[in-house]
Fold this protein.
Amino acid sequence: MITFTVPGVPQGKGRPRVGTVSGRARVFTPAKTVAYENLIAHAAQQAMAGRPLIDGPVSCSIAIDAPIPASWSKRKQAAALAGELMPTTKPDLDNVVKAILDGCNGVAWRDDVQVVDLAVRKRYGATPGVRVMITAVGATPAWPHRCAYLPDMGYVVWRDVFEGRMECSIDVAVRAHKVAVFVCGSEAAEYCEHRNTEAQRAA
């Protein structure tokens, strides 16, 4: 699993432009889109940290954090952060997704045709950007630091990534008699089920 954040105001993939070169029609990707996809590729490359490209099917989760208008009142801004107001403005969610997937081509995976599971959410955020999580489908989950073991319950998880932040303190959550794990819920559950099964066999 890899996670990374594309900083800045989220941008959608622009439509190709038609131009003329030496009297012949040519199709160009807008410069703004090229720059944004390069930014995505850079963030993904840093997260890959030299690992090889994912070859098989991929699950991708994308959280789009839209900027809150500075002209809004403090009360309205607070409502936006609380999820009471939704960003029903540009860029379109699907265009942002297309930019993210294309930007990861040749960096995280070979081609975005490999993406078989996709979860997307668009909300206002205190810091604009796009948070991305990529997991190889079928890979053995390995996030013990994101799960917690309780003597009377075994390995347990709490909620899905898009119900909160991507990271939180497991220790604090356990002290509050809750367990938080901010990864794809189904895969986190799979990991915990796997560990609990191992524990049962060992017993």
